[in-house]
Amino acid sequence: MHFLLYNILDTVRQLGWAGAFELLRNGIVLGSLYALVALGYTMIYGILKLLNFAHGDIYMVGAFLGYGVFTRLGAPLSPVVSIVPLLILTFLAAMLGAGALGVVVERFAYKPLRNAPRIAPLISALGVAFFLENSVLLLTDGTHYNYNTFELGGNPNTGLPGSLFHPAFSVAGRPVTVVQVLVVSAALALMLALTLVVSRTQLGKAMRATAFDREAASMMGIDTDRVITSTFFIASVLAGAAGVMFGLYIGETYYFMGFLAGLKAFTAAVVGGIGSIPGAMVGGLLIGVVESFAIGYVGGQWSDIVIFGILILFMLLRPNGLFGSRAIQKV
Amino acid sequence: MKKVLVAAVLAAALSVLVATAWGSAKAPAKASSAATATVKCGKTQTIGIAAPLTGDAASLGLQQLRWAQFFAARWNRAHKKMKVRLVQGDTQLPNTAQALAVAHQFASNSKMLALIGPAGSQEVQDTVGVYKGAGLDVVTGSATRVALTRGKAGTPRETPVGWFYRTVPNDDQQGARVATWINTKLKKKRVYIIDDEEAYSQGLADQVQSLLNAKPGFHVSRDHVSQSVSDFSSLITRIPSNTQVVYIPWQLAPKAQLFFTQLRAAGKQAIVFGSDGTFAPGTFNAVGSYVSAFPVDFNSGTLKAYAKKHGGKSEAFGLPSYTAGLVNATAIAKACKDGKASRAEVRKYIKKTNLTAAQSLLGFPVRFLSKNTGAAQGAGDMAAPADFAIFRIASGGKYVRVG
């Protein structure tokens, strides 16, 4: 224990403030992705009280759809369109495709179980998760695909990075790259858009009403089935966007990528308070930053222990999370 | 009273089932009838392949499967009298319980005369007793832990002699080669070693770390990262910018490629050195990096044919499973000369394997040792000149053998 503590303090000293900034930067970028996926968990839980464990796999399918369009357009080495339309088309394909998949999953795996005991859709969600994972495994032969955005707009022979990896600005001598700015700003824009949809539109009002009391909302004339379908669509659109962002930033897409990402996003949703939209955003960022600092200061082998340790602590000490409200049981 | 009786009977039945399952998993099974039975050699002979075909390590297991299937297709085209049929077993590495289930399934398949796999060292250690009980040899294309063939001071070897063979050189051979290369050819002293928390990777990392630490003037740091991680940015923050070589003995080549690009994106210029797990032209294309692997000839017609069939990728990590298939099929063909064969007969011929370098595709001939030899090898390892080579990744991702 003393040795571990000594190592941590020594690493903190060695990395200094510049290293701390670098870890914070990495954590915010990663946390933005977790937040987008966590939003899906929290929205679906809020409206159906369902832990949709297939959500991580919708994120994975989104990453694959984006990869398909990205490479069909000749990227990264010889894109047939310039970088902005390339990214827009990639995002659109992934978001719409993932959204459609979310709707299909809801229609066939959850809707028939609407009035079943709560364990039934949960098991169905696990089934969908394995179905999606193994379908993609069969379709892709287990291959790990790489967006390779490092070479987008660069010269592969020189080994120098492409434009997405150029520094946008620097802090404490550490660069923040274009792709990092892109990921964080796109995530923030999507979170803002979601907040506006939920708080300012008729659909948002219907979503809140359905989440509060589905039966009462139905009696007030709200088409709750349509609201639930819309919620699945929006949640899956966000997951699809997160999948592409992960591809652009990290590069990798493969059939199993949704498993751990989904678990971490679920942790983020629980930490933030499952059912709470601001909670998912803050929880995602928090988990990302904690993971980054755990890897940076303690070591890579500790990050999952720290993250899932936090999950256990929250379940024990603050089960409603940071922003969740205590449910009042009427008797 | 009746209910209590029924419950007691059920509990007893359950305990018998659990005890049976526990016993079969823990203790090496006694020789089964399949072990000694002689089968009539029909036109098609069955070989099992135990590999992780689903789960996190499926990309590796599927490479092994595709190479084994490639072998079977070529064998079947070339041999009119004896065809080979592969039976797949999904071991879901590192889930050794699943590997045990596959072992029992294969053991009870009386048509199965030989086996390719299992893939992981831990899987081999846990299942070799079951295979021995069924009279089947383990011939693996990837389990490289030294202790499987050679015990160290005070610890016995982990497999019974005569029941385990591998068509890859072991970790000590690889580790020694890498450490020597870093020391004498690269002449770099500041080395950062990162294992991927799997037994294969940890063994190699330990070996290289201890060899380099034993030399004067070396500054060696050690770190770990899970195989499931893709974002290495925070790990890279930990690597001092004056590091000259980063050694990553990982199983997954795509992760090594991600690590390389993220290292360069962070502005760090250390040389990346991978192991045979990252030996994947077309996937790990990190220009200027090094990889230790068996000295395959990428210009061989067979490798080219495989790559042509698989989207230009040679998937060289899976190649030793081709060789393992050939070892098995050759032994079965010899055992079947008189029209019938037993697993014992097949084992006898596996022990006498003698493949040329051109046949094995590995870049060296394959013969198995029957006793400890040199500093690193034991019975079941391949005899010299089987060893690792060093490749440098040149422009365009081309692997050039440099040592």
Description:
The complex is a heterodimer of chains A (331) and B (403). With 331 residues, chain A is mainly alpha-helical. Chain A has 2 domains: 40-255, no CATH class; 273-320. Helices cover 71% and strands 4% of the residues of chain A. The N and C termini of chain A lie far apart (49 Å). Chain B has 403 residues and is of the alpha/beta class. Chain B has 2 domains: 33-169 and 301-368, 3-Layer(aba) Sandwich (Rossmann fold); 172-293 and 390-401, Rossmann fold (3-Layer(aba) Sandwich). Chain B has helices at 2-26, 33-36, 58-78, 96-107, 121-133, 171-186, 199-213, 233-238, 253-265, 301-309, 319-335, 343-351, 357-360; strands at 38-40, 44-51, 83-90, 112-116, 138-140, 164-166, 190-195, 219-224, 245-248, 271-274, 290-293, 340-342, 389-394, 398-401. In chain B, the strands form 4 sheets. A 7-stranded mixed beta sheet of chain B has the order 8-7-9-10-11-13-14, covered by helices on one side. The termini of chain B are far apart. The chains are: A mainly alpha (331), B alpha/beta (403). At the A-B interface, helix 1, helix 9 and helix 10 of A face helix 3, helix 8 and helix 9 of B.
